[in-house]
Amino acid sequence: MRKIVVTGGAGFAGSHIVDEVCRHFSDAKVVVFDKMTYAGDVRNISHHLFPNRVQLLVGDVADLDMCRRVVKDADLVIHAAAESHVDNSFGNSLEFTRTNVLGTHALMEACRQEKVRKIVHVSTDEVYGQVMEGAASENEVLRPTNPYSSSKAAAEMILQGYLQSYHEPIVIIRANNLYGIRQFPEKIIPRFICHMLTGRKLTLHGNGTNRRHYLSAQDFAEAVVFVAEKGEVGEVYNIGTTEEYTNLQVAELISKAFDKPSREVITYIPDRPFNDGRYSVSWDKLMHMGWKPKNNLSDDIGMLVDWYRDNFARYPELFGELPASAAVEVEVAGLLPVQEVSNGLAKGLSS
Ligand SMILES: NC(=O)c1ccc[n+]([C@@H]2O[C@H](COP(=O)([O-])OP(=O)(O)OC[C@H]3O[C@@H](n4cnc5c(N)ncnc54)[C@H](O)[C@@H]3O)[C@@H](O)[C@H]2O)c1
C-alpha cells in the first residue's frame, strides 16, 4: 500500500482505525480526511501528527472536488466519516442525509473517477433495525428505524449502485456498538463516566431494558484492516461480539467502577421517539476467515474511567470543570489546541 485515506479519522472509531492502519501498513502514507465537526478532535490523532506519520486534511466528504484531490493515487479508502449520534438525528435529520448519503455518494464518485483500488465502507448493525431474537446475518433485509440508521442504509444503497454499475471495489462492514477511549461523551458509556466524575445522575432512557452489544474499538479497527486485506469486493461483513448489556447493566457496571451503589446514581427519563430494543449480528463469516474479538467491556471499564478522568478537560462545554474531589489524581498535559488546524491543510504538516 502506498497511500491510505481514512475519512472521519479524527473521530472516535476513525482514530482507532488510523492507529491500526499506521501499525499494520507501516510504510504507507496515511491521510485523514475530516470535516472536524464537534465529534472530530485533532487530539485523537495528535500522536500520529507530531511525528508526521499522518497528514490531516480538513474538508467535507460531500465536496466532490475536494474528495477527488484527497483520494487521488489512493490504494485504499476507509470511509468512516459520518454524523453518528442517533439522538441528534431526531432533531437534525437533513444533516445526517447530507453527510451520510450525499457525502458517501460524492466520495464514491471521487473514488471511481480516481480509480481507487479498494474501498471499505463503515456501516452499522443499526441498518438491520431491531433484532429482538437471534442475530442478523449479512443477507438480512435492511429495516432501519431512525434517521441515523436510515441514512446509513441509504448510503449502502448508493454503494450497491456503484458495485453493480461500475464494479467499484467496495467492501461493506456493519459493526456493533463500539466502546473505547476518545468517544465523544454524547454516547452512553463516556457520558455516564463523565456524569459519575462530576457527581451527576446516570439518566436512563425509558426503563433501561434496551440491549446493545459492545465491541472494543481496537478489535473493530483490527477487523477493518483485516477486511481491507482479505475482504472480497461486493461482500458485506458483520463485525460483532457476544458482549451484550442492557442500558441498566451498563449503568450498573459504571457505578460499580466508582464504588457507588447503582440505586443511588441511576434515574430514568422519557424514551427516544423510537428506540430499538436490541441489535444483534452474526459475524460467523468474518470468524471463519480468521477474525475474532479479544477484549471485553467489563475488563476495560477501569481503563476507560481513567482515560476520561485524565482527559476530562477536553469537554468543558459539556460538563464544566472536574470537581476537586475527582480531580485529585488528574494530570492533563500537553494538549494540542484545536486552532492549530486551519481549513485545508493542517498547519505544519507535510502535503
Ligand atoms: N461508534 C459506534 O458505536 C459505531 C458502531 C458502528 C458503526 N459506526 C460507524 O463508524 C463511523 C464512525 O463513527 P464514530 O462513532 O467514530 O463517529 P464520530 O461522530 O465520533 O466521528 C465522526 C467523524 O466524522 C467527521 N465528519 C462528520 N461529518 C463529516 C463530513 N461531512 N465530512 C468529513 N468528515 C465528517 C467528524 O468530524 C468526526 O471526526 C460512522 O460511519 C458510524 O456510522 C460507529
UniProtKB/TrEMBL annotation:
The record lists the organism as Pseudomonas kielensis
Please give the Pfam families that the UniProt record associates with this protein. Answer: GDP_Man_Dehyd (PF16363)
> Which residue range or ranges hold the NAD(P)-binding domain?
6-298
InterPro entries named in the record:
NAD(P)-bd_dom, NAD(P)-bd_dom_sf
One GO BP annotation of this record: nucleotide-sugar metabolic process
Q: What is this protein called?
A: GDP-mannose 4,6-dehydratase
Look up the domain of life of the source. Bacteria
Q: What is the lineage of its organism?
A: Bacteria, Pseudomonadati, Pseudomonadota, Gammaproteobacteria, Pseudomonadales
